[in-house]
Amino acid sequence: MSLRNLMFSSVAVVGVAVAASLGFAGLHSGAPSVAQESGAALRAVPQSQAAVQLSFAPIVQAASPSVVNVYATRIEQQLASPFASDPFFSRFFGQNFFETRPRESQSLGSGVIVGEGGVILTNVHVIKGATDVRISLSDGREFAVDVVVQDEQTDLAVLKVRDTAGVEFPALEFADSDDLLVGDLVLAIGNPFGVGQTVTSGIVSGLARTGVDVSDYEFFIQTDAAINPGNSGGALVDMDGRLVGINTAIYTRSGGSVGIGFAIPANMARVVADAGAVGGEIIRPWFGAKLQKVTADIAQSLAMDTPYGAMITETAPSGPAARADFRPGDVILSIDGLRVEDPAAFNFRLATRPLGETVQLERLRGGVNETVNFLVESAPQTDANSVATIDANSRFSGITVRQLDPALAEAKGLAYDAQGIMVTEVVRGSPADAMGLQVDDIILELNEVQMTDAASFAQMASQRTRTWQIILQRDGRVSRFIVSG
What we know:
This protein is α+β, with helices and mostly antiparallel strands. The protein folds into 3 domains: 1-18 and 56-74 and 108-282, Beta Barrel (Thrombin, subunit H), CATH 2.40.10; 289-375, PDZ domain (Pdz3 Domain, Roll); 384-484, PDZ domain (Pdz3 Domain), CATH 2.30.42. The protein has helices at residues 49-52, 57-63, 87-93, 124-127, 266-277, 296-301, 320-323, 343-351, 406-411, 431-435, 454-461; strands at residues 6-8, 35-38, 41-44, 67-79, 100-115, 119-123, 132-137, 142-151, 156-161, 185-190, 198-209, 220-223, 235-237, 243-251, 261-265, 289-293, 310-315, 331-335, 338-339, 358-365, 368-375, 387-390, 399-403, 421-426, 442-446, 449-450, 467-474, 477-484. Strand 7 and strand 8 form a beta hairpin. The longest helix has 12 residues, at 266-277. The chain is globular and about 80 Å long.
């Protein structure tokens, strides 16, 4: 199925407090029931009609105060006439038919209160581009909020109520999403299609799902609880009334639920919420190595019983992995005892670990399993000279660039020693935009001068000249073109 059929939700959601305890374990041939111990939670198949008739109502009632609707107002440009693109009408009525006018639009999403001081989690795609964002509680009270964090990498945003005087905001407790098992009961609570607060139940259908293509961290919880457009930013909760995930997307052909919904795990959501609670930016761990999936052929060559893990193919010079003596050919099997199925799983688990913490990585090298204590570090921070914005009266006005470093090169799939200046932002309608420059373009040369640092580029690009000769790399291809100054 094409990813074009992936529908985003925009959900009004509910969080829950502990109230009831239900669970399922898998059925086993020849045995009437199976109980499975996972941590402190006991999962068991219902043994009687009375057990089957137990209600989710106490959980839902306790959760309602933690549900908020998110109203995002946007100003969009709309054609002044519905016939503006028709050449027949433009010929007789002039080019004014092609003029645009601002139009206000509003979208409804939802969020989860995760901090008593009015800290709310939602999806970035719910509030992106909004000029004004407000939330309403389940009792109808409305509040203006500030967008504290917009993390495009996870599609998570943090909102903060501006005036909290005299108002209590009941926060939803985070669960450890690593404790989830396929088959666990979950509830999705939200406002699908704007029909009003709706609760749906289902099970965890899958864990660590990839290929959803809505964020950089592909490690989603899959559920068959009905999730529809209107559910984005909503809560997926367990039977202890805790937040296990933020509903984000559905897979569909028709636009409605077909029982395949995806949620961002709570362990990642907690990282973003913690950063938003203190108003800080998110600084993520950096391993400093390129990884590949262990295929069946690779596993056989390494005498592994089953194919799993993340194999190192290259390490960044002087990066954290290289300093911890990781080498190409090593296979990372687990982190803190949690199995690593593939590179996506490793990247997710490392991203949820606090900076400065030491984690235990199990690696396979030369047929021997070893445990390595690894210090979680961030990538070297970029200084003022590494980034430049051109706002002078120049052909490059409206562009922001950053010089390549190993961490940025890894994130963009480039060689660690890649050189050049990467375009990170282009203001729409600016001279740089008119010139055709795009985000992720790599400027290699400018008027036959090799570009190696942002400061030199800024100094040269701010000058006036009759023509510019630019050599840049786009999507792996190097091109040369000339534009007037």
